[in-house]
Here is the input.
Amino acid sequence: MIVAVAGGKGGVGKSTVAYNLGAEMDAVVVDADLGMADLPTARGPDLHDVLAGRADVLEAVRESGPVDLLPCGRSLAGARAADPTALVEAIERVEREYGHVVVDVPAGLRADVGLPLLAANVVVLVTMPEEAAIADALRVRALARELDGGLARVALNRVTEAQPVEELATLFGAPVVSIPESRPLALARARGEPIAVTAPEAPARASIEELADALYSCSRL
Amino acid sequence: MVSLDATTARQAGVTLVTGQVTGADSPMRVTIESRLDGPVWPPRRQGQPAAGWSVDGFEGIITADETLAIGFASPAEPVSPPLEITAVESATDAEDRMATAAGVLRGLGDPSPPSVIDATESASNGAGSTLAAPAQDGSDPIPDRPATEPASSDGGDSLPPEIESWLANVESRVNCAEDLEATAAVDRATATLEACGGVAGARRLDGQLTADVAMLERLERRVNELTERARRGSVATDALDRLP
Here is the structure.
């Protein structure tokens, strides 16, 4: 199963959700932010090298960390040399080899967003309880629909006070999972580890688990 | 009944072909193929062949009472007629334009960062410099031929490393463009292409060079202006010595 974690707006927590979802699902997390990589990185071939035809995608998957990761290079020259259309095939190849793939999709609405949505079986939209974030997520929702990426869940991130989500679910046409504003989640992120390792009892972890369970049930359909 | 009118014009060794398809009374999917004895050079969007174009020709929808106009180029000699309709079938509504990776790129636009950022970050000292000196992490799209010819070869007065690194990048792009232009033979072109970051790299090269020229010109003006001011602005050290 290929899960695209998208959201339109930057800073809503896409990378955090993608990374922790990857940990929960024992998936390979692909950092597809070709221009501004966000997830932990390491030496060796990365997604830029793969998309420029300089490395095999399976060589670029790091299995040494707490979560299997396909990192993205951070140089602009690397981003320019990469052929974005090769992303779809690269993601599909990782899926064939590893089973589950969670793609951390960049912000915006350009081809670097469209290509992972094209590759994905299901989409998780991450947004925050504020108007601009929801508006951007709706635009990505429209794009995902055009690209046949089925929306599995909306992850409403950084919720500070419990609020009804029915209206939001109707707006997006998909169930909403709330992820509370969480210090343990932020700390885990800062340490480059999943919350499943650093604070498995935290409420935010339960939200991530709920999200993972929902995706598993989607994949069984 | 769908019909096709076509024209050809030969200009500078290139045949330009136009076609007009008319006469559909309901939406029809038409396949039009080139009869020229040579490759079809299709119109492009964002560097990708525009929607509907393939190596053989064009496939697209003509709606009722509409004229479908197409055009392409080819190095082959003109023939008459240059185009033929090879298939006409009733079109379905579910025309999926973004069903392929190339289609998505065409529809949404290439996300690659503009090359001018590279130069801007190199020129400003500080935080951005590691991003702008890609040769260091081995991920420069263009291999390091120019890096083997540092400025230090001319007498030992090397430029500041960030400027040197940026100039080396520009130089490597210029080298690539010159190599690509010089390599007309297909058998050697593959190696040259590879050295220039593949087909994707070569396609971007053109835009990068335009940006490079603009940046070099700005740099030239800045350098001239600063040289002039630096020459004029000598510091009166004698006067400073007399300060209490």
